[in-house]
Design goal:
about 425 residues; alpha+beta; BirA Bifunctional Protein, domain 2; eight-stranded mixed β-sheet; elongated; binds adenosine-5'-triphosphate; binds magnesium ion
Length: about 425
């Protein structure tokens, strides 16, 4: 008989079906064995009742161990008490492989052990839920951008120069020359927008982050939309529309996953535009009142982000950071040259920054000055300067971190669980 996936069992009530999967866990009640089976699409309780099957099949149900691979057949029954609302009355079971001593048992394990066994840990229910949310988030991002006039432009991973500061660069060798793993595709998409109007890249970014935090990965995925003829205001509008779309789509598509994760979804439902905004300078004053004083001109650390965001139910934009806090390509605020036309989006509930972005410098002269001031290798940026020589326009863009967004939507503590095989400070295995 053809395989039925657990996500589709509702269509087969009262019918005999076959499920191919693995044993998640088992409860032994003597003549009744309750097998929790997963097949990648979901889990279902399978009930083996001694009286209703051959002695041989019942023996197999007794013998099967955690994470054995198996094929089961039986009748689908609706049952309110069962997780998911359905169960399978087992008639036959075939063990594909009888697993011995699966390392991750239902008892508590330490995080190092789980990370060493990440290749197996992925099978656990919460990890399954988180990574399905990740997939839904990525789908929502792509749908939003593809349906709103953005063209996908894949930018290179091997690059000749830094764009987000040299301290986090991964260096490699390129036929006898130095090359670096990309930290961001933005500079390249400042070129593609002059050909296509609105573009985005979506790929991995590499940053050798030297401090251990629960918000930083060494390899993470970022979507970076870039728009010609868009100012900071327009940029923020796109950001709030995109973020609320991602959240609302995920709430629709991942209700089951968020329930497994015990996420309080009422906190996500209200996240619709417009998002609140506060200037960096006002935020500094607020921080002082809150006892998180910071000298004007310094970039926020995690405690400052958390304090500001705690005042709002929605993500909040902090805009117009001092130019000195931001990268060389940020546009200057015409009303105050100390400020940049930049904005970060801070998630509520202490999840920190999920987007960094702003308006890019349109002026050749200003860019040349910044490149010199910051001792950046001018030759590597000649092509970038051309974009200001030949038809420069006001333009803006931003980078949204996929894993930060998934951490926030799932309501989990640490970013490392939001990517199948995390690269973290000091860990590259498995
Ligand atoms: P932070 O100050 O938190 O390190 P950043 O200012 O370096 O962030 P940007 O360069 O603006 O971040 O990158 C855009 C987005 O990419 C961030 O808002 C965040 O969502 C994500 N991001 C940046 N660095 C990391 C990282 N090491 N791991 C995971 N996501 C990251
Ligand atoms: Mg950083």
């Amino acid at each position: 008989m053809d395989q039925v996936y657990i996500r589709d069992v509702a269509k087969y009530i009262g019918q005999q079906i076959t499920i191919k999967g693995w044993l998640y866990n088992k409860t032994d009640k003597g003549r009744l064995q309750f097998l929790m089976i997963r097949d990648g699409t979901g889990m279902i309780q399978v009930v083996a009742f001694k009286k209703e099957m051959t002695a041989e099949a019942f023996e197999a149900a007794l013998a099967v161990t955690q994470e054995s691979s198996l094929i089961v057949s039986g009748i689908v029954r609706q049952d309110e008490r069962a997780a998911g609302g359905f169960e399978l009355s087992l008639s036959d079971i075939q063990i594909v492989q009888l697993t011995q001593d699966y390392p991750i048992t239902p008892k508590e394990h330490g995080i190092d052990f789980l990370m060493d066994n990440r290749h197996l840990w992925l099978r656990s229910r919460n990890q399954w839920a988180i990574l399905r949310v990740r997939s839904a988030v990525i789908r929502a991002i792509r749908d939003y951008l593809d349906n709103n006039g953005f063209i996908l432009m894949d930018t290179p991973i091997l690059t000749p120069a830094a764009c987000e500061g040299t301290t986090t660069l991964f260096e490699t060798e390129y036929f006898g020359e130095k090359a670096y793993l990309t930290q961001s595709g933005q500079l390249y998409n400042e070129a593609t927008i002059m050909a296509f109007g609105r573009t985005y890249c979506f790929g991995p970014a590499f940053r050798a982050e030297k401090s251990k935090t629960r918000r930083h990965l060494i390899e993470f995925w970022m979507v970076e939309p870039e728009m010609a003829y868009a100012d900071l205001e327009e940029c923020l509008r796109v950001e709030e529309n995109l973020v609320s779309y991602i959240i609302q789509r995920t709430l629709e598509e991942c209700a089951e996953e968020l329930k497994i994760l015990e996420r309080d979804t009422s906190r996500l439902e209200g996240i619709v535009p417009p998002f609140p905004r506060i200037s960096y300078t006002d935020a500094i004053a607020v921080l002082k009142e809150m006892g998180e004083e910071l000298p004007w001109g310094e970039d926020f650390g995690a405690p400052h982000e958390v304090a500001i965001a705690s005042r709002y139910d929605k993500p909040v934009f902090v805009h117009r950071y001092p130019a000195q806090c931001k990268a060389f390509y940020m546009e200057t605020d015409p009303l105050d040259p100390q400020l940049s036309l930049s904005a970060d989006l801070l998630a509520p509930e202490g999840y920190g920054e999920i987007i960094g972005g702003g308006q890019r410098t349109a002026s050749l002269e200003l860019l040349e000055r910044r490149i010199a001031e910051q001792n950046l290798p001018r030759e590597a940026f000649e092509w970038y300067l051309d974009l200001r020589r030949y038809g420069t326009v006001p333009h803006s863009g931003f980078g949204l971190g996929v894993e930060r967004t998934v951490t926030f939507i799932c309501g989990i503590h640490h970013i490392r669980e939001t990517i199948p095989f995390p690269r973290t400070l000091g860990r590259i295995y498995p």
